Amino acid sequence: MSATKTKLAPAHTLSRRGEGPNPIDIHVGARLRLRRTLLGLSQEKLGEAVGITFQQLQKYERGSNRISASRLYNLSQVLGVPVSYFFDDMPSPDQIAAEVPAEAMSETDEFESMARRETLELVRAYYRIEDPGVRKRTFDLLKALGGDRIALLEE
């Protein structure tokens, strides 16, 4: 009977002192910030809910401090998302290894725009429209105003 060795996937390179935060910690922190802002919670309120200071939460959101598994679980409970939420849209290992992937930069820019207060207020107002027909027409109007006329013609 021969023993077969299982080949493990390579682990992401961990950042060493002085190299800055690990890209995975930055991603998890960004997802934490996005969910917190979508819910309209301040750093102070979320910190109180999980028993940490708002300064510690800031460090988590920047990725400068790693979030332990138990803390990530607590945050997921308070924010009403599964733990996997924090890893959604995670860049591939190749993108993480690359210095400055162009695609990741555009995703970061898109993420930043989604986290703006103006965007969040617009989304909340949109979902307060009760009539589905009015909501659809509002959506179509916004797409047209934003220059997405091709998508409107295809519909």
UniProtKB/TrEMBL annotation:
The lineage of its organism: Bacteria, Pseudomonadati, Pseudomonadota, Alphaproteobacteria, Rhodospirillales. InterPro entries: Cro/C1-type_HTH, Lambda_DNA-bd_dom_sf, TransReg_Diox_bact_type. Residues 1-22 are annotated as: Disordered. It comes from the Bacteria. Coiled coil: none annotated. It comes from Azospirillum melinis. SUPFAM superfamilies: lambda repressor-like DNA-binding domains. Keywords: DNA-binding. It holds the Pfam family HTH_3. Residues 32-86 form the HTH cro/C1-type domain. This is Helix-turn-helix domain-containing protein.
